[in-house]
Amino acid sequence: MPEHDTADDTGRTARESVGTSVDRTSRRRFLTVAASAGAALALGGTAIAQEDAPSADVTFEDQTTDGKTVAVASVTLSEGGFVAIHDERLLDGDALGSVVGVSEYLDAGAHEDVEVHLFDVKGAEFETTMLEGDQTLIAMPHLDSNGNGEYDFVATGGAEDGPYTADGEAVIDDAKVAVEAGSSAEPTAEVCFRDQESDGKTVVVHEAMLSDGGFVTIHDATLLDGEVFQSVVGVSEALDAGTHEDVEIHLFEGVPGREFETEMLEEDATLIAMPHFDSNGNGEYDFVTSEGAEDGPYAADGEPVVDDATIAVTHGC
Predict the structure, then answer these.
(1) pLDDT confidence of residue 133
(2) How far is 162 from 158, CA to CA, in rounded Å?
(3) How confident is the model at residue 183 (pLDDT cuts 50, 70, 90)?
(4) What is the mean pLDDT of residues 20-29?
(5) Domain-ending residue, one of 144, 179, 214
(6) Same domain, 174 and 197
(7) What predicted TM-score, i.e. pTM, was given to this entire model?
């Protein structure tokens, strides 16, 4: 398909970047071949029919990022779909495991400056929340083959939402992505838990900031004696990344893996608020049931992020 061999107005194509750098052109061609091999492996060698075949172009430029998002300069999709971001494992044929980001659904047509969040992909699990260093990433347009508006390529093992191709090769572009100085791979959290009166059944966390979302748990004072699991007496609903105010938490109920012999605080007590990850992304607090293997606490300088408050129990008439 000749149109993919001719540079567009930017001087770049989906298959290679035209310029004076022979090394970059050669690397682009190698990336295209390697990416196509990986895509073919994931798709079981299935080829898209050439008659009225869907087409795409993508331009992915070198950039500096916070490590959590990248920007695809432009993408044109004849039938709509997505732009997936792969790391260099794609070059080893790992078309599924190399997917580290995917755009929202894009309608058919041209799109510019498409922001893609990294390490949040349906069907994939990650041990990090951001790029840990400068590296080459690869942008690859994908079809929405099942028409459900969701990127199912990884979750279906490549059976759905395969890549757009040209001349039997996956349409791609690569970019060198530098992580800006001062960025950190370490997620952060803050919590403010103030002294308060309570009916003994609920408490309110004044403010919680979770960079990656998760939960705020409430522990009783046995935490100070090393009772990490048995000290959990309450947990918030799942919280999105960001800052939350006046988070109400019910005590002695709704903590997976805990059974309680009481329904409320019987007397004044010191309680401790602790932000936790949703490390497996299932929206449920699994720290106790997994014995700490999932949904561990946010940390700062190697210590869990916590704040404590004195809870005065008020007894109604």
Answers:
(1) 86
(2) 6
(3) low
(4) 38
(5) 179
(6) no
(7) 0.51
Element (H, E) at 303: strand 303-304
Alpha-carbon distance 231 to 270, whole Å? 12
309: CATH: 2.60.40
CB atoms within 10 A of CB 36: 21
Same domain membership, residue 137 and residue 234: no
List, for residues 144-176, the tens digit of each pLDDT value: 999 999 999 999 999 999 999 999 899 999 999
Query: pLDDT digits over 207-248, tens only?
Result: 999 988 999 999 999 999 999 999 999 999 999 988 999 999
Here the tokens at position 283 are 């929206």
Residue written as token pair 């080829």: 47
Using alpha carbons, select from 223, 221, 215 the residue that is nearest to residue 256. 215
Has residue 184 been placed in a domain? no
* 165 and 211 within one domain: no
Domain assignment of residue 215, given as a range: 189-313
Please provide the average confidence, as pLDDT, over all residues in the chain: 85
- Give one DSSP letter per residue of 223-275, joined into a string: GGGT-TTTTEEEEPPPB-SEEEEEEEEEBSSS-TT---S-SS--S-EEEEEEE
Distance CA 295, CA 220 (A): 19
